[in-house]
Design a protein that fits this description.
Blueprint (H helix, E strand, L loop, with lengths): L2 H11 L13 H12 L1 H9 L4 H22 L6 H46 L8
Helix pairs in contact: 3-5, 4-5
Length: about 130
């Protein structure tokens, strides 16, 4: 464990790490901890917010598809067709990267949500975790 990680753990948990003498959790630290746990659902709002990447990818897919056809059709007399075709190919390649990354992120998002829920489940066994207001 790196020195920075040890110091961070000391500050968060106020536990004995690396042979230092035992310290008690101060009443201020306890109050801050209980407040953070009671507002655990607010962290979930941030975690679940990223769920819409698949919908964004579908919207972009439609935009890219129409853009290619429309741009080539509309620019026949304005631009060199080779240049327009090259730009459309570049846009399609960028979309493929976006779509692949969004798919990968969707899997990662599910893992992140599961880990968040597991932590919340354990915390709720010992502390009051308020539910999100609906």
């Amino acid at each position: 464990m790196k020195k920075f990680e040890q110091q961070l753990l000391k500050n968060i948990l106020n536990e004995n790490i690396g042979g230092d003498e035992d310290k008690k959790v101060s009443s201020e630290q306890k109050r801050d901890f209980l407040r953070a746990v009671s507002e655990y659902h607010k962290l979930g709002e941030m975690i679940y917010r990223a769920q819409g990447l698949k919908e964004v990818a579908e919207t972009l897919k439609g935009i890219v598809g129409v853009a290619e056809n429309l741009t080539i059709e509309e620019s026949e007399h304005w631009f060199d067709n080779v240049t327009v075709s090259r730009h459309m190919k570049q846009m399609n390649e960028a979309f493929k990267v976006f779509e692949k990354t969004a798919t990968e992120m969707s899997g990662m998002q599910q893992r992140l949500e599961a880990a968040y829920e597991d932590m919340g489940s354990v915390l709720s066994k010992y502390y009051k975790v308020n539910e999100a207001l609906k």
